[in-house]
Amino acid sequence: MQTIVIGHRNPDMDSICSAIAYADFKSRTGHHDVIAARCGTTNERIDFVLRKFGFNAPTLLTDLTPNVGDVMQPKVICVNADSPVYDAIQLIDQKGLRGLPVVDSAHRCLGLLSSFKITHYLFPSRDEADSARMVTASLSDIVSTFGGELVAGSLNTEPSEQLLMVCAMAQESFVPRLRRYRDKQVILFVGDRPHVQLLAIQEHVHAIVVTGGLEISDCIRDAAIEAGVTLISSPHDTASTVLLSRGAVRVGRMIQSEYVSFLPHTPLEEAKQVAAQSGQFIFPVLDEDGKLVGILSKSDFIKPIPRQLILVDHNELTQAVRGAEDVPIIEILDHHKLGGFTSHTPIHFWNNPVGSTSSIVALCYQNAGVQIPQGIAGLLMSGLLSDTLNLTSPTTTATDRRLLAQLSGIAGVDPDQLSNEIFAVGSPLLTMTPAQAVGADSKVYKENGYSFSVAQIEELSFAHFPEKRESLLAELENQRTAAGLIFSSLLVTDINEQTSLLLVRGEPEFLKTIDYPERSHFIWELSGVVSRKKQLLPYLLKCVARMKAV
After folding, report:
1. How many Å apart are CA 304 and CA 286, to the nearest integer?
2. What pLDDT, in 10s, does the model give residues 226-265?
3. Which residue has the higher pLDDT, 469 or 255?
4. 231 close to 153: Cβ distance less than 8 angstroms
5. CATH number of 2-64+306-424: 3.90.1640.10, 3.40.1010.20, 3.40.1190.20, 3.40.50.150?
């Protein structure tokens, strides 16, 4: 079972750093197959921190919706289209299967072979009994199925139509009957009846199979060689030898070529609905080139999904990676407001009103008595400094200050210097497109039946804001209408002056509830507001409540 530690969509510094650090903590405390992941792109500041402390960006996972690949059986028992049916029967019997997928030499799936089809072939209805003597197979495959031995002549390896004939009649009846099939390749099955064997050689049958492991005389062998008739010895009696011979037909002649298949990334629920309407016993799983990569049976749909989630820096499914609601969530570490998360089973949920989730992860190490590695300490410092704006945000607590001093000692990095380096990297207004600036750290909230988004970017000053203002407002409106939100907002924060500008595009009745000084159309000045979580979000929630009251 793989455990994925992952932050919210549009990840910020704290989300990325806490995911990497908590995955490390879980691994150091005895948990296996734990990975850190992200469900969005990083930015220049995050990339700078990762490089500085020697880490790669977490694995990108944008959709964890359970799919066919999660539950399919990757080790597939299949049969080649050129194989004799006899080989397929042995596989089906040994493995207790109802059938097999059929592949070509390149492992592309050609169809299905069902035990029902084989049974119908081996035991045809009375009306089709006469045709049962006709077998399209190579003489080589026929001999292989009953374990025969070549006595004279050669064994053709190319399939052709053969007529199986048993000599179970008087000699005077044999030749006239045999001559009725002069246009066929006759394989005669006979016991130790030298006169019949000689007559068959004189009539130039395709092959003679002497059954029962009985001795074949030298004169019969010599006559067969002279006439160009293949002579074969079978260790089995006549009835068994004929029955086994019919298993030489190649699988390709029995393929069910119309069948339902899935791709590994087909959503599991979609596949389940399709499979429920199908009578197929198995469903091939193919890659984009049609190659067989797995098999799915109806019982596979009840398998548990082989992964589970730990959410960091969020606790609302609207902010979680796509498909999170369909995967077991076993832990949550967060420092934001509760978002109405529910669980069918008890889980570890640590919601701590500190300045960052990185602070919570640092506490996890300390509470467990686990030494924080130097590089991890640097990541936790970065997440803490970013979320608290170097301890200047009102979300900062005494715990954050204590932890930062301790982490600084472990990492060997000065907090003020690291903070300056982080915020000096890549102004979002200059390095991001309007869509990236609005979406990079955007979170969607639901309150009183309304959905809205709140994003934030931090700048060293508002110097670059005027030239980006109109494009940012246009992108906010695009985001709002595309997602059907009551409003979309962006908080642009000047971390030096400890003030912010709030850009909002939304329904007129909501815009009327904002009572901060309006700097220009759709832009309000929020002096002293730097925290989305502790200052802006509570205010916006009050505005939503006022709008509903109106």
Report:
1. 22
2. 999 999 999 999 999 988 888 888 887 888 888 899 999 9
3. 469
4. yes
5. 3.90.1640.10
